[in-house]
Amino acid sequence: MVTLCGSTRFYDAFQQANYDLTMQGKIVLSVGFYPHAKAEHGHGEGVGHDSAEKVALDELHKRKIDMSDRVLVLNVGGYIGDSTRSEIEHAHRVGVPVDYLESGGPS
Hints:
Elements: E1 2-5, H1 11-23, E2 28-29, H2 38-41, H3 52-67, E3 70-73, H4 82-94, E4 98-100
C-alpha cells in the first residue's frame, strides 16, 4: 500500500502516480481533494491553511501513512511544502520508507 504525498497543486502528478501504481497492482491512498486545483478540476472546497478542517485533513493523511508500506512524495520541480515535509517526518518517525518522484528529495 502506497500513500501519495505532495502539494495538491500537482493534480496531474497525483493522477498519473495513482494510475501507474494501480496498474502495478498497488493499493494507493491519496489526498481526498485538491484545493489548489479548484478552477481547473473543481476539487477545491476552500479549506484554508490554518482552518480546523485543514488540521483534521493533515492528521487523516498521517493515518493513511501509518497504514502504508511506503510513501511516494510527488516533489514536482523539487517542491516540498510544509505539510508534505510534516508528512515525510511522520513517515520517518513511524518507520515507513519514503521515495520521491524526482531525485534530490531530502533524506
